[in-house]
Amino acid sequence: MTYGFMAGCSLSSSKPQRVGDAINYLQQFYPDLAVIQACCGRPTRMIGQEEKFQERFGNLTQMIKGAGVDELIVACQGCLRTMRDEDRFMTSSLWVKMAELGLPTQCLNKAKDSEVVFSIQDSCPTSQMTEIHEAVVYLLKQLGYGVAKSRLSGQNTLCCGMGGMCGVSNPNLSHDVAQQRVQSFKTDYIVTYCASCAFAMGVGGGKAWHLLDLIFGDVVQLGDTPTPSALGNPVKAWANRYQTKRVIQKS
Amino acid sequence: MQYSKKTTDLAAEIVTQCTACGRCMKDCLFLQNNCETPKAFFEKVVQGQEIESVVPYSCLLCGHCQFVCPQKLQLDAAFLSMRQDLMAQQKQLPLKALKGVLFHQKFSTSALFTTVKKSGDKK
Ligand code: SF4
Ligand code: SF4
């Protein structure tokens, strides 16, 4: 069985270092891990160009098969949803995988002295994949963080504001949705497992961390603020994307 | 606007089945801003009334509505189908802002920003 890993566009554009961390982690279990940096084409589909999307997704499928991958571990919920809708190769969610494989020992309970309680922004493309929601809660508890319940979570989650290309086609609405989403949480500390969601929560005035930062980065304490997302800065985002490519090639 | 059969069918399904219970609207700003009820909105689509392009392009395609809808109606599928019609029927992009998405997608799938490290490839 050959495993592959794909981070997806938004994570590659915002956190090259965390892509590297995820690869290192997975390589401990799968030394022959293949790594793909590519785009699933979901935005193409979402703006209504279905044929073009099919062409792009076909190319991606060939790339994955050409790399000899039997099962692709995916960090992005948009990619995962698109791949499962198309159903041309086997996929798994990075978060479910991490819950199954177990966190590195040095991560366990590392936040036990932190009083931060996180609200989870569940990604909308995978709103019906409940195993992911469970895995994320499990991982947070393994890290030692408190988790607040929210009415609009799990299957009942709401979009962060960036879904459906709304951020591009109707930035005002996208901003209002992000703000509403931030205000819907009972705690000031938000965790997302999608880089776009993390960016959106910032746009909406919230403090959001990406789950990979909680796993591989410093413990978050009361009063901490997250580093602003690079997704708000196109030059930085494309530079990061290129940087991620280098990280993969050197991994 | 002449919608495709697929769009009209999806819209007609919503018109017949939607009971205007309002559950989908409770937490969706997009619907709150753009319609009285999904039933009323998609009646306009069935009748081929002019609807600004920005409306279908503002749905977040998040699927929350389908989860809370007692009829499990797929409003997102209908809005996506409207987008497909707009793309297919117009010579220009339905919204200028979408140029950014075309650009983004072209680069995202280009050799410059993609790479494959095959299984077992060493550093
Ligand atoms: S899919 Fe569109 S209509 Fe349905 S809840 Fe999301 S934004 Fe609202
Ligand atoms: S939840 Fe379903 S039935 Fe109720 S208003 Fe929305 S679309 Fe209509």
Automatic annotation (TrEMBL), chain A:
Keywords: 4Fe-4S, Iron, Iron-sulfur, Metal-binding, Oxidoreductase. Signal peptide: none annotated. Residues 5-83, 121-201 form the Cysteine-rich domain. It comes from the Bacteria. InterPro entries: Cys_rich_dom (IPR004017), HdrC_iron-sulfur_subunit (IPR051460). This is Heterodisulfide reductase-related iron-sulfur binding cluster. It comes from Agrilactobacillus yilanensis.
From TrEMBL, chain B:
Signal peptide: none annotated. This is 4Fe-4S dicluster domain-containing protein. It comes from Agrilactobacillus yilanensis. Residues 50-78 form the 4Fe-4S ferredoxin-type domain. The lineage of its organism: Bacteria, Bacillati, Bacillota, Bacilli, Lactobacillales. Pfam families: Fer4_17. It comes from the Bacteria. InterPro entries: 4Fe4S_Fe-S-bd (IPR017896), 4Fe4S_Fe_S_CS (IPR017900), Helical_ferredxn (IPR009051). Keywords: Iron, Iron-sulfur, Metal-binding.
